[in-house]
Specification:
3-stranded antiparallel β-sheet, 56% helix, DNA polymerase, domain 1, mainly alpha, hpI Integrase, Chain A, 2 domains, globular
Length: 300
């Protein structure tokens, strides 16, 4: 095993054991760090010999390649995590990322669907087949709870409590929270769990709630394909919708209807209220648009 492989392995073990990072987070870190190591290796620079100027040069390279500011910021965050770990463990003398300034990245507002669009999409899904019922349950879950796609595909049958109308979801860092089950979501789940639904798909003893056509747990890629197909049927452009857009839409619509920000924060599993505050800006934008179109003095 090479020195760089050993250093990476030690870091990822630490992330799993000490930080409880999710599989998705680990995969993102690994992609970022592997790309950086490839770049430095091509230039004859070992991981322990990296200087701040090398990190700066790498970020410039990413910019030149047309990488988005958000992607560059994530790459720098991955490097800071790895080199911070190595410095703390005494594996390197100096952390080369300490004085590196990242590219400025404004926090972009999410683009939720209109309420009418979401309702039209959900109501367009029939209950004719087991896959129809699965799709309806999936989209009602994403919109009804604001769950991340990784949380939705991880829900198990035993996590659904119809008596209390609650669903247990497991979020980032294996943190669990309870989210409420609205009437529409409850109906969709009950139909899916009827004999003509999930049981006709199941090929294994897996207790994962959402299954694909082969009877195995639905993947994130499978969710994307379902959303794309169902959106096309109601005329919603593919670039405007994703699993995360359902999460954005859930939060924005709740705030627009007067929900308390702390409640929305708890529902979405945000560690910081600052993250939830993004959606208030979306609500304000909607309010301003309506005001300009309706108030007699808005343009006077």
């Amino acid at each position: 095993m090479s020195d760089v492989d050993r250093l990476l392995d030690e870091y990822f073990v630490w992330l799993i054991v000490e930080k409880g990072r999710s599989r998705a987070t680990l995969d993102a870190y690994r992609r970022d760090l592997t790309a950086f190591v490839t770049w430095t290796t091509e230039r004859g620079i070992g991981p322990r010999d990296v200087r701040a100027s090398d990190v700066d040069a790498y970020l410039v390279t990413l910019q030149d390649r047309g990488r988005a500011p958000a992607s560059i910021a994530r790459a720098l965050a991955s490097l800071r995590g790895w080199y911070g770990f190595m410095a703390d463990e005494g594996l390197i003398a100096v952390d080369p990322t300490v004085h590196v300034r990242g590219t400025h990245r404004g926090r972009s507002l999410p683009h939720p669907l209109d309420e009418a669009e979401v309702l039209a999409l959900l109501d367009s899904i029939p209950s004719a087949t087991a896959l129809d019922r699965r799709d309806r349950a999936l989209l009602e879950l994403l919109y009804g709870t604001g769950s991340r796609v990784s949380e939705a595909v991880g829900v198990r049958i035993e996590d659904v409590d119809f008596d209390e109308e609650l669903i247990k979801v497991t979020g980032k860092g294996a943190k669990q929270r309870l989210v409420p089950m609205g009437r529409a979501l409850r109906r969709a789940l009950e139909e899916y769990l009827e004999p003509a639904g999930r049981s006709t798909l199941a090929q294994t003893r897996s207790s994962i709630l959402l299954l694909n056509a082969r009877g195995t747990p639905l993947s994130r890629q499978g969710v994307d394909a379902i959303i794309a197909r169902r959106a096309l049927q109601v005329g919603i452009e593919r670039h405007r919708i994703s699993a995360h857009v359902f999460r954005h839409s859930c939060a924005t619509h709740m705030l627009a209807h007067g929900a308390d920000m702390r409640v929305v924060q708890e529902l979405l599993g945000h560690a910081s209220i600052a993250t939830t505050q993004i959606y208030t800006a979306v609500s304000v934008s909607s309010l301003q648009q309506v005001y300009r179109g309706a108030h007699p003095r808005a343009h006077g």
